[in-house]
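Retro notes, structure queue

What went well: the backlog is down to a handful. What didn't: a couple of records were mislabeled last round, so from now on we paste the full input next to the output in the thread. Example, using Ribonucleoside-diphosphate reductase from Apilactobacillus micheneri:
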Amino acid sequence: MSLKDLKDVTYYDLNNEINIPKDGKIQLNKDKEALDAFLKENVEPNLKKFSSLKERFDYLIKNQYIEKDFVDKYDFKFIEKIYQYLKEQNFHFKSFMAAYKFYAQYALKTNDGEYYLEQFIDRVAMNALLFADGNEELALDLANEIVHQRYQPATPSFLNAGRKRRGEFVSCFLIQPTDNMNTIGRTINSALQLSRIGGGVGINLSNLRAAGDPIKHIEGAASGVVPVMKLLEDSFSYSNQLGQRQGAGAVYLSVFHPDIISFLSAKKENADEKIRVKTLSLGITVPDKFYELAKNDEDMYLFSPYDVERIYGEPFSYVDITKEYDNMVANDEIKKTKVEARDIETEISKLQQESGYPYIMNIDTANRANPIDGKIVMSNLCSEIMQVQQPSTVDNKQDYIEKGTDVSCNLGSTNIVNLMDSPDFGKSVDSMVRALTFVTDHSDIDVVPSIQRGNELSHSIGLGGMGLHSFLAKNQIEYGSDESVEFTNVYFMLLNYWTLVASNKIARERKETFSNFENSKYADGSYFNKYTNKYWGPKSDKIKSIFKNVFVPNEDDWNELKQDVMKDGIYHQNRLAVAPNGSISYINDSTASLHPIISKVEERYESKTGKIYYPAPYLSNETLKYYKSAYDIDMRKVINIYAAAQEHVDQSLSLTLFMRSTIPEGLYEWKDGRTDKMTTRDLNILRNYAHAMGIKSLYYVRTYTDDNQEVGVNECESCSI
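Corresponding output:
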C-alpha cells in the first residue's frame, strides 16, 4: 500500500457525519472516530519504518532529505535523548483536521510521494535541533515548547526546518521603490526573486509620481502607479516556485496620492482588463488628516509626489502629511487635485464590500507608537508588520548607490491556551525568542541587498498569539466582554515584558544591540514610562484567578527592566506582531489568531478531498454558548479586543472585519430605522471607530452574503504563521 493507492478509507465519511446532527446534537464523537481511522488507514501503513533512530537519520542524510550540518552539531546520544523525551510526552492530535493538515502539508514524504518519512515529533525534533544551533539545553527547551504546542513557528520555519531541499525560514518581505526608473526596475527584479524563494511581498508605491506628472528630459508625462501594479502582478504570477504556489504580493498607496482612485478601481470586477489586477492585494496608508477631513465633510487635496519630493527633499512617504497638509495646500509649486474626502471614503467602502480590499494602515497611529528612530511607511501582505525603513538609491547599472533598509518577517506564535498552562511563562517566551533569533541571524537574502541589510541591522522578529477565542470559551468568558478585553490586555502585556527581558538578556550575552538603539525610546527609558506609572495587571476577580499561577510584573518590575535595557540594550529592533493563522492553527487545535470563530463546526473545502469539518476546539455543552460566530458579533467588540493587544504590541495585528450583507437586527444601533443591508456607511463608521481606538491596521473585510458565500476570503499561507 502507498499514499497513492488509498482505497476504501472511512475517515472522510466519519468526519462528514459531524455535519449531520443526531437527536439535535453535533456528533462530536465522529471527529475522534475519523481521527483514529485516519491514523490507522492512512498514516500507519504508509509510514516508512526503520530499525533504529540512527538508521533513520543515516537514511535521511544519505538520500538528501535532511541537512547534515545541523545534526553534526550534536552528539547522537543527545539526539536519542531528545527523541526519548518527545516520546514520553505522549503527543496526540486532538482532531481529524489537525492530523490531516499535518500529514498533507507539513510531514516530510519520500521523493515519489508514496510514503511519510516523519511523524509530528520528528518535525518537532527538526525544529528544536535546528533552532537551538547546537545548544543542548535550548534544544530540549524548544522541544518542550513545541511538542506541548505552546510555541508554533511560522509555516515556512516549521515546514522547512532541517530539510535539505527547502525554501527560506522567513515569512514575507517589505520593499519600496523611490521615484525613478532604476529603483522601479530593481523592485520588479526583487519581487521576482523574493517570490521565487517563498513568502509574500509587500511593496510601497506611494513615492512614485502620479499619472500626468512630468518626466525630466522627455516630452510627455508619467503613466502613474497602475502600470507598475500590472508589471508586479505579472512578476508574481511568473515567479511561483515551479507552480507549487501562486506568487503573492500586496501594494500600498497613500490615500493622498493622486492615483488613489485608479489604484482602487484596478481591483474592481468590472475594471478594464488593461488595468485590472486580479491577484495583487491592495492596501492604503491613511494619515489622521484624512479622518479629520472626512469627518468634517471637507474637500481634500491629492498631492503630486514628484513636486512634494522636489520641495521637501525626501520621498513622498516620508513627508508628514497631517503636519504639512495646510502648507502643501498653500504651496503653488505643488500640483494638487481637489476631491471630496467622503467620496474617497465611500470608494474605499464600496471596494471593501466587493472584494474585501483595501487593507487600511493608519500611518500616523503607527508612527506615534513607534519607539524606533525613523519612519514606518508601509506594511506587509497581511498588515501586521510595521518597521522603519530607509529608501535606497540605484544607479543606471542597477547597482546600489545608497543601500537602504527593507524588511523580512521572522514570525512565530504563542498558543494562548497552552502557554497559559506553562509551568514557567517567562522561560517559555525566552525559548521562543531564541528560536526566532536563530531565524533572523541566519537569514541572508542576498538577492535583495536592502532586505539583507535591513535584517542585519534590526534583528527583528514577530512573536504573536493564536487561540484567543478557544481560550475564552474554555474559560467560559464571552468574546468581546469586559473580562475578555482585560485578559487580552494582561496576556499581551506579559508577552511584551518577557520578550523585552529575553531580548535584553541576549544583548547582554552578545554585547550587541540592534543598530541605532541609542536613538530609540528604549535607550532613553521613555518607552517604559506607561508601565512604571501604572499597574497593568488583572483587576477583576475572574481574570485574577486565571493569572493566579502566573507572575505578573508590577511597576517596580518594569522599572528594574527599564534600568537593564537602558544599561545593556535589547537585541531586537522589533519583537511582537500578530499574524493571521491559516492551516497551522488547525494543527494546534486552536482558533485562528485573536478573532472569533466563523462557525461552531467550520466547513473547509480541500481541493483533492472535498469538504472537511472542524469542530471548534473545546466545543462542549458547557462552552457552546461562548462560541458565537464572528458574523454575529458587533465588530466594535473585536476592535476592542485588538486594541487591548495593540497597546503592548510594537508592530501590528492582522484584524479582519466580519460582516453580513444583511445585518442582524439590533447588532448596530445606527441601523435602527434604516435598511438592514450592509452599506458603505457601516464600514465607514467601523473604520473610524478602529482609528479612534488606536488600531494600526485593518486586514480584510470578509462579507457573508445572503446566498451563503464569503467575499474577501484569501488565506495567505506565507504569513499565516
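Agreed that this is the format going forward. Reviewer comment attached to the example: The radius of gyration is 25 Å.
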